[in-house]
Amino acid sequence: MPAGHTRPGSYIACGASVAGTRHIRDQIPCEDAWAGVILPDALIIAVADGLSSAEYGGKGADIAVSSSVRDATDAYKPGEQDIPALIRSAMSAGREAIHDHALSEGLHISSFATTLLLAVLTPDGAFCGHIGDGACVALSEGEASLLSVPGTAEYANETAVLTAQTWESHCRISHRAADAIICATDGCQGALIRREDGAYVPYSPFVVPLVRSLGEYLDEGRDLNSEIADLLSSSRMRALSSDDMTLAVGFSLSGEPF
Fold first, then answer.
1. pTM score
2. Residue 46, SS3?
3. CA geometry: angle at 124 spanning 32 and 181, to 5°?
4. Per residue in 58-87, pLDDT tens?
């Protein structure tokens, strides 16, 4: 799913995951992952950050995004269902797939600890299920708003993960009007959101031009996944964090101009 943006209908989904400078230095593969699929009247995107403290966090992230997006795609029925329930079920399927893989390898599921953000963009707006850090910003007629922000944890320097037994209690579901969504893992969430007076706000000077540029690149026939990968590898983005970075964007071609 991550290989090449697709355009079968009125939506576009694109993204990239790149290794952070710390992982490049230590010759550790990227432990982030993303997946996306376009349906005739909706799109589904997932991003995940495998915990570096988990031996196979990167594999957990990969399984989480691919399995949850697949399950949501199989279950989606236009205009007939409860999207928040679909998201919870898809996230549960992602966790179950990790659990099954762990058992097949003779390992505990905690060895594959990962966050997960699963977003669905439909004509009725954007819906997001979120466990852990990372962020999702929505655009509606060119105006940016928060869809989901990093979750809080019981202890400092800790994040909730899909692989925990208590994952359901940490799953936040949100919804708002949108014709575009921008999803990120914590390595580049600072480009999407900022803190003002102790509260998160969307960083419009980044997200609005980003979606506008991707629309222009699409018209020019450029590879949107490569464009995002180049952006994440730029010095501007590297200055935000030494962590792995994932950025995935979905937008409607029938929405208002960005």
1. 0.92
2. strand
3. 30
4. 999 999 999 999 999 999 988 777 999 999
